[in-house]
Amino acid sequence: MSMGRALGALTIAAALWPMTAGALVTCPATTPKAVLVPEPGAVRCQAKIAKEASRFAVTRVATLAKCMRKQQPGLCPESNDVTKIERAAARAADQIARACGSAVSDLATAYGSVSDVGTIAECTLAQHVATTTVVLGNNHGTPGRIVDDRKRDKCAAELSKQGTLYLQAALALFNQCLAKAMKSGTAGADVASACLPAWSGGGAFVAPTDEKTARKLAALGARVERAIVRKCELTDPVASIESLFACPGAVTVADLQACIVCENQRAATTLVGQQGGEQFAALVLPGESLQAAVDAAAPGDKILILPGTYAEEVVVQTDGLQLVGCGAATNDRPRLVPPGGVGPHPNGIFAANVDGLVFQGLEVFDWDENGIFVTGATGVTFRDVVGDGNANSVYAIYPVQSSDVLIEGCVARRIADAGIYVGQDENIVVRYNLAEDNVAGIEIENSAFAQVYGNLARHNTGGMLVFKLPGPPVQLSNDHEVFDNVSIDNDTPNFGDPNSAVGTIPDGTGLLVLSNDSSDFHHNILERNGTFGLAVIDQRTVNLLSPGSFNPESPDQRAEGNVFRDNLITGNGFNPDATPPNDVPPEVATNLIYLLGEGAPNCFVGNVVADGPDPIGLDASVCP
Questions:
Q1: Do residues 92 and 125 make contact, with C-beta atoms less than 8 angstroms apart?
Q2: Which stretches of the chain drop beneath a pLDDT of 70?
Q3: H or E element: which one contains 269?
Q4: Please, how many CA atoms are within 13 Å of residue 141, restricted to the half-sphere of its CB?
Q5: What secondary structure does DSSP assign to 36-61, as a single string?
Q6: In the sheet that 426-431 helps form, which strands lie side by side, from edge to edge?
Q7: pLDDT of residue 193
Q8: Do 423 and 351 reside in the same domain of the chain?
Q9: Which of 214, 239, 553, 595 meets the CB 3.0–4.6 Å disulfide criterion with 539?
Q10: What are the backbone dihedrals phi and psi of residue 261, each rounded to the nearest 5 degrees, phi first?
Q11: Same domain, 371 and 501
């Protein structure tokens, strides 16, 4: 698989950045938000917002980075980390309130229209949570290691250190420049280009026009790149750069340099835009109708939603709408719950044939079918969405028959089918999510071209599933890259519909691949799953084991052209599902089972399969 899809538009170039003192990276296209000078009476307020919100973001990144450097799957955040971050949020909110007061009305951002200064902190810090979650994923991946290797671990620690350093230093540099520009600027003037870098679609770097800022930014990038070179020349073929969970898709030192510099630079400019460039069309408060705000919105509008409970079903029909919740810094996202009265209440949010949607910072709870259901979309993003099904909902996050799907930094729990479900879609990225206590944690079904990486699936019936099923009109499942994921301790008894596909999954399944083609599964950790670590089967095999499960089978039900490489598959098969009809004989429970009812070539190479029952069926592996 090409690293291009994992790193987006990022490329490595031999040419130097303009003014960058030897830096070697070229970054994806980015254009900062406009940052407008406020009226003189609000300059101090705006500077305090930037300072305190940035301090919160850096505290969150540094605190979680320290935990994530331990590389222990499922450890972070620890309880003291949560306490420290929430205290930082409270301090930032208090300082912003003290500095701003009545000066809020003179701000040049949309916050100039709010009556409660506390809204600024709630909404700014919540968006900082979403942004820093993604950059933490980039700098670390989901904590875990495939191999124990001193040099590899030193490199992982250095990437964490340099990512945090770059973000902190860039934020300080940008804020200092903007504060100076606002003091001397004219109210309403855009000062973003003076202080913030940009990248064109052709890979050209546009330096800040403030020469001091440009010079310091160049020096910062060069320092970070030199540090990465010193610690990350990994030549061992096993403990290679690809074995790192940080910087997904990287295979060279230059890739690591670009990953850390570009992604942390992007995060810093995004954070600054949230602090000084916020523009929204509507602000929804508890007790108000979210549906009314959605209906009144124009294409491309952003709606901020304050913490509280919203008991209504929302239908979105406007392209480009952004529904962004506030309150995530203290885990107090706006919560969408079913309205009272006679049901059923199928969906918290529903959108059909609507493009360019963003759902961020929301919680959906206990819906009869789906938390957020989107169908027929081109471009849909789910970011920092928490879906809790209360053992009732079928799906938490549910995009179907859509393209250009991004699901990142989300949490799905207690879902009776799949917490994160992607079905009949193409061009998909699912990254840095947590799925726990579901029947299926993450499911990629009848889809193509999915990048699934950096996710943690734990205490589900089955952690991760990559399927082709008969029935859906889209009959394909191919060209995925599933890597750097951790699927551990999946032990929840199956509480799904017994007539559904996932209702037949044995509890204790780490990764199940069914009738899928031409995909690369690598550098995943599949550990302590009671029945199977990795199961690779096809519909015909399922029918042989359980007659009539697929009647008829898909027109092409074979699994072929897949590569399973460099995965850690250990400590599985110790407690197979003993509950009919999903019970598995102890002699079949294993770390790895490879059984196809119709022979087709698939390759298993370089996997660490140990500390459990011997693999089954690997004698049928065929590698190029």
A1: yes
A2: 1-24
A3: helix 253-276
A4: 33
A5: B---GGGHHHHHHHHHHHHHHHHHHH
A6: 282-284, 302-305, 322-325, 357-360, 378-383, 403-408, 426-431, 448-453, 481-483, 520-522, 563-565, 603-605
A7: 97
A8: no
A9: 553
A10: -70, -50
A11: no
Question: At 558, is the secondary structure helix, strand, or coil?
Answer: coil
Residue 624 has what pLDDT? 86
Please state, in angstroms and rounded to a whole number, the distance separating the CA atoms of residues 136 and 159. 11
pLDDT in tens, 263-306: 999 999 999 999 999 999 999 999 999 999 999 999 999 999 99
Q: Are residues 144 and 237 in the same domain?
A: yes
Domain containing 348 equals 280-392+401-412
* Residue 331 DSSP SS3: coil
Length of the chain: 624
Run of H or E residues at 370: strand 370-375
- Are residues 9 and 97 part of one domain? yes
Residue 508: both structure tokens together = 């204790």
Amino acid residing at 73:
P
Contact 387, 397 (CB under 8 A): yes
State how far the Cα of 84 lies from the Cα of 89, in Å rounded to an integer.
9
Three-state DSSP at 567 gives coil
Looking at the DSSP bridge assignments, the partners of residue 452 are: 430, 482
Q: What is the pLDDT of residue 612?
A: 86
CA 551 to chain centre: 36
Q: What is the pLDDT of residue 537?
A: 97
Output DSSP code: residue 336. E
123 in Cβ contact with 113 (< 8 Å): no
pTM of the complete model beyond 0.85? yes
Q: Which two tokens stand for residue 321?
A: 């709408």
